[in-house]
Amino acid sequence: MMKLKYVLLVAGSLLLAACSEPEKTDEATQPDTEVQAPVTEGDAPEAETTETEQEAVPDSEPGKVPLATDVWQSPTELTFDDTTVSLSSDLWLNSMPLIGDDGTKPSNRLHASVKLQTSDMKTLPKGIDIFQVLLESEGKQWLVKDNLEIRAEGELTLEVVLREGPEWAPGSRVDIAVIFLLGGAEHIIVQHDVALGEVF
Q: Which residue of 14, 99, 114, 124 is most buried, as measured by CB atoms within 10 A?
């Protein structure tokens, strides 16, 4: 009887050991699955950070537009209280027989009469303060902002007279911008493609 009990105990122990092996196998595989999950979750935030950084690059590089580009996109007419204002300009080179800066050729200094005027014989708004005139031709610029010679022609026109400018080629096409203050606000008005004449 003792031998039979011993044999049954050994057989039972072996049976329990055999039954418990699949459970150990399942437990062994489960940690592998759980370990992989955090790795995948950890990768996701890194990918999101990369995308965020890439999207932030354009925002950190704002477009820089040259001032002259903005000026030449300004309107050729402005309206104040039903009064339309525009530019009318005459440009010429003074080619009188004067010696140039280098002493070897006649001086071809640019002169200009730039008029801010109204249409339909209406008076100009009161309080216009012209403080800059910009001329551009073939990539060259002439900015006049000091001691502007401004003349009022009645109530319809303000004329800015410019003298002794750069020596540009006769027949050049010139863009003109007038920057002025009115009512505490800055305004820009332009005139395009004005022919540069010549006076002998």
A: 114
Residues 123-140: tens digit of each pLDDT: 999 999 999 999 999 999
**Mapped to the 3 state alphabet, what secondary structure does 38-51 carry?**
HHHHHHHHHHHHHH
pTM over 0.70: no
Q: DSSP H helical segments within 60-125, as ranges?
A: 67-72
At 183, phi and psi to the nearest 5? 65, 30
Nearest alpha carbon to residue 144 among 117, 114, 99: 114
C-beta atoms surrounding 166 within 10 Å: 13
Alpha carbon 122 to its chain centroid, in Å, reads: 37
Question: Going by DSSP bridges, is the β-strand pair 173-182/129-137 parallel, antiparallel, or unpaired?
Answer: antiparallel
CB burial of residue 31 (10 Å; 0-12, 13-18, 19+): exposed
Bigger pLDDT: 104 vs 167: 167
Domain boundaries, the chain: 1-64, 67-199
What kind and span of H or E run contains 165?
none
Has residue 4 got a pLDDT over 60? Answer: no
Topology of the domain covering 67-199: Immunoglobulin-like (2.60.40)
Helices (H), the chain: 2-59, 67-72
